[in-house]
């Protein structure tokens, strides 16, 4: 069993995962495959022909390395994981993206990688340029701006600006979106590949675009510096500044680059210039620097030569493809324009139809209202006519009433005058009666006084008569008979009795006249009261009639 395990057959393949900027792929590779075999497989899979810009990068310890095409994959310092992870990235950058990047897939991969480097702040970008780049990124993703579709907040889930820019200004996400959208609206009509190319054309002018930085020292006393390698040449920076190099060595001015262990030597083409030496502490980093220098220099020299047949064919095909796509976009734009015009015409027709329907509805409503108004006006006219007749009748009645009131007023005035005259006459009569009453009372008082005096006189006369009788008739005259004496006495008594009856009768007459006067006076007072009440009622009736006329 141990022998069988010892001679156990090793697997013939290994698993690889390749991560591009917009996809992940897994491959089963043969053990004997070199780096070029895997790289070519990836390029064929994604349809990439401009392979000289790209490479497969992997992480090793605290740095990264690029897969060497001439060595077997498993013989390199690749991770021992399964599957082994590689990142398909741009290793070298063009000097002028518009001239060198031919394929649309190449442009797209560069666009995605550069955008990620800007958002991750590996490439410094000013706030103004960041907003402009973000607007082209939005155009590439969403197409033409449509305010009916792209409502406020549609960019809330998109990462478009570096965090440094967001923190630099006291602005909300809505404010940033408003600024980006303002630029985005200006890019109408730009296709996705054109928007990505515009993005790269702006990004290639940034100071840190396409530069790979490495920590170096100029001498063994550890004076820290940064080495920058890009498509233009080599640059020496201060540790705190990656934007402005202290010294630059363009590829056209470099005669030779060599390194021995940790020491690099840059020999200028101009022999009068000093040789520049720097040191790097790690051997793996030194190899990486040398790879980048060789690759960038080769591309630099290649750009200055006539394009190969393959590149010429690619450019011709790309030109034809762009012309075809441009024609298709123009046709599409024309069709879109015609469709939009047709839709606008349809909307205008529908709007006009709705407008005509509204106008017809309003006209019908107006007609109904006019008919109702006509009926109402006819009814009102009839009512007005009846009211006019009624008012004329009332006016006639009012006129008759006025005339009657005038006659009544005249009669009332005449009656009032007569009543006042009667009242005056009654008052005069009352005054006369009062005067007569007073005169009668005075006469009655005189008569009473006379009666009293007469009674007194009678009493005195009787007394005297008695006295005379006593003195004259106690002794009878012998010559006169007794019957004569009695007769004389009776005669005297009869005379005196006559006087007493007259007095009574007079007193009774006086009393009767007084009672009659009192009764007449009472009757006159009642008549005066009746006259006054009639006069008051006439006055009230006259006032009521005057108010009625007003």
Q: How far apart, in Å, are the first and last alpha carbons?
A: 143 Å
Query: So how many helices?
Result: 11
Sequence stretches where pLDDT stays below 50 over 5 or more residues: 1-7, 473-498
Average pLDDT: 83
Let me know the number of strands. 12
Q: How many whole angstroms does the radius of gyration measure?
A: 74 Å
Percent of residues in beta strands: 5-15%
Please trace the helix and strand order, writing H or E for each element. Answer: HEEHEEEHHHHHHEEEEEEEHHH
Helix content: 55-70%
- What's the main sheet like? 5 strands, mixed
Structural class: alpha+beta
Number of structural domains: 4
Strand order of the largest sheet: 2-1-5-3-4
Shape: rod-shaped
Q: What is the multimeric organization of the chains shown?
A: single chain
Describe the structure.
- The chain is α+β, with helices and mostly antiparallel strands and 550 residues long.
- It has four domains: 13-90, Ubiquitin-like (UB roll), CATH 3.10.20; 104-204, Acyl-CoA Binding Protein; 212-305, PH-domain like; 312-470.
- Helix content is 61%, strand content 13%.
- The strands form three sheets. Strands 2-1-5-3-4 form a five-stranded mixed beta sheet, with helices on both faces. Strands 6-7-8-9 form a four-stranded antiparallel beta sheet.
- A hairpin with a 6-residue loop joins strand 6 (212-217) and strand 7 (224-229).
- Helix 4 (104-119) crosses helix 8 and helix 5 (127-142) packs antiparallel against helix 8.
- The model is unreliable at 1-7 and 473-498 (pLDDT under 50).
């Amino acid at each position: 069993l141990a022998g069988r395990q010892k001679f156990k057959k090793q697997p013939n393949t290994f698993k690889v995962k390749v991560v591009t900027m917009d996809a992940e792929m897994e491959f089963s590779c043969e053990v004997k495959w070199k780096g070029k075999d895997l790289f070519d497989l990836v390029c064929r899979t994604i349809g990439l022909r401009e392979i000289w810009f790209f490479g497969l990068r992997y992480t090793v310890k605290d740095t990264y390395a690029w897969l060497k095409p001439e060595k077997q994959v498993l013989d390199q310092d690749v991770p021992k994981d399964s599957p082994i992870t590689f990142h398909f990235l741009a290793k070298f950058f063009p000097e002028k993206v518009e001239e060198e990047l031919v394929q649309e897939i190449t442009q797209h991969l560069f666009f995605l990688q550069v955008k990620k480097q800007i958002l991750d702040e590996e490439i410094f970008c000013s706030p103004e340029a960041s907003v402009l780049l973000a607007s082209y990124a939005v155009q590439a993703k969403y197409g033409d701006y449509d305010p009916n579709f792209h409502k406020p907040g549609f960019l809330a889930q998109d990462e478009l600006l570096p965090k440094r820019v967001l923190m630099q200004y006291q602005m909300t996400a809505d404010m940033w979106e408003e600024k980006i959208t303002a630029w985005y609206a200006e890019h109408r009509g730009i296709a996705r590949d054109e928007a990505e190319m515009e993005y790269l054309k702006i990004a290639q002018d940034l100071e840190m675009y396409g530069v790979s930085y490495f920590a170096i020292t100029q001498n063994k006393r550890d004076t820290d510096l940064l080495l920058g390698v890009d498509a233009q040449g080599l640059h020496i920076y201060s540790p705190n500044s990656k934007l402005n190099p202290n010294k630059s060595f363009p590829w056209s001015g470099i005669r030779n680059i060599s390194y021995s262990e940790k020491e690099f030597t840059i020999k200028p083409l101009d022999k009068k210039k000093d040789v520049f030496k720097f040191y790097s502490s790690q051997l793996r980093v030194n190899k990486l620097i040398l790879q980048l220098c060789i690759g960038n220099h080769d591309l630099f020299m290649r750009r200055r030569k006539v394009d190969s047949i393959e590149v010429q064919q690619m450019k011709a095909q790309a030109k034809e493809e762009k012309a075809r796509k441009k024609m298709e976009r123009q046709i599409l734009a024309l069709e879109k324009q015609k469709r939009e015009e047709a839709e606008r015409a349809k909307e205008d027709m529908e709007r006009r139809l709705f407008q005509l329907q509204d106008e017809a509805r309003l006209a019908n409503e107006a007609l109904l209202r006019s008919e109702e108004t006509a009926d109402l006006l006819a009814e009102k006219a009839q009512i007005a006519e009846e009211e006019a007749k009624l008012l004329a009748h009332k006016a006639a009645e009012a006129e008759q009433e006025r005339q009657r009131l005038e006659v009544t007023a005249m009669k009332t005035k005449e009656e009032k005058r007569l009543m006042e005259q009667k009242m005056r006459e009654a008052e005069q009569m009352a005054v006369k009666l009062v005067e007569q009453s007073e005169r009668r009372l005075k006469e009655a008082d005189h008569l009473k006084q006379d009666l009293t005096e007469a009674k007194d006189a009678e009493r005195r006369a009787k007394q005297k008569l008695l006295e005379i009788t006593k003195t004259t008739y106690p002794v009878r005259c012998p010559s006169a008979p007794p019957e004569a004496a009695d007769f004389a006495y009776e005669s005297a008594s009869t005379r005196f009795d006559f006087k007493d009856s007259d007095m009574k009768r007079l007193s009774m007459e006086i009393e009767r006249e007084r009672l009659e006067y009192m009764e007449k006076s009472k009757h006159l007072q009642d008549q005066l009261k009746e006259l006054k009440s009639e006069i008051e009622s006439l006055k009230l009736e006259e006032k009521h009639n005057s108010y009625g006329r007003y």
